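hey can u check if this looks right to u? its 187 residues, i copy pasted from the old doc so theres a chance i mangled smth
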Amino acid sequence: MYFTKKISDDPQSIHIALKGLSHTNKIVLVSIFSGFAAIFQAAGGFMPGIGYFISPLATAPIIFCSILSKRLGFLSYLITNFMLLISQPSELIVFPFTTGLLGLGIGIAFLMYKKRLAVMASGFAALTLGILAVLYGFKFPLLGPAASTSINGLIIISICLFSAFYSWIWVEISVACFKRIRAVTAS
């Protein structure tokens, strides 16, 4: 079955290849990718319309930094949050609980698990818990008027289905990008 297939060793190979970088180089990479994540996430506020299609890309830099190491992935997550606090505070409720948390969940799962389903489940769990925490814990209308902040079973099921689909998309995008990175680093 497709979901139980083993993912290639590309994430681990990239992790091992980048492990040899100096501490300074790793910090510079994390800073650059955190800047990209903050720019992508803030795009929705700076460029309404097209920016909302750019903001989901904030997940990719967090996944990449998490491939470097769990600690650097978390550091990138924190730095991006601080950059958003300064540049676009309105995105500070969205990024830490959705886009950023999904990136951390998938990135760390790539290092821990070999099966596609396990990586997808990690991203699904992170995104679902993040959305539910914002929607029902903080009572913030993250999904707009479509979902009220009072607990509703249909909304929870919809969030779960969306999170599973969105996590699957990001796992597939990541696997394709890892193959490209591996091909470039191999030559």
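The chain has a mean pLDDT of 90.
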